[in-house]
Write a structure and sequence with these properties.
The chain is mainly alpha-helical and about 70 residues long. It is built from four helices and no strands. The two termini are about 20 Å apart.
Length: about 70
Amino acid sequence: INDDYDPYTVLQSNIYDPIDRINKKRISLLKKHHPDVLISKGQPLEFVEKNNHYVKMINKSWEYVKKNHSR
């Protein structure tokens, strides 16, 4: 990805975790940070926009992990 962040850190996992555990963590993070969920809870727009960026990072990190994770 790049040097700004580690995909495993974004997914609150590490390189030694099994991929199914990383995926469960990803799903949990998406449920917590997804803009639709935050909007339905009445969160301020700037908070939703910040979390939208985080959701993109989660998705990009997951794509990296899927392609590169040792099984």
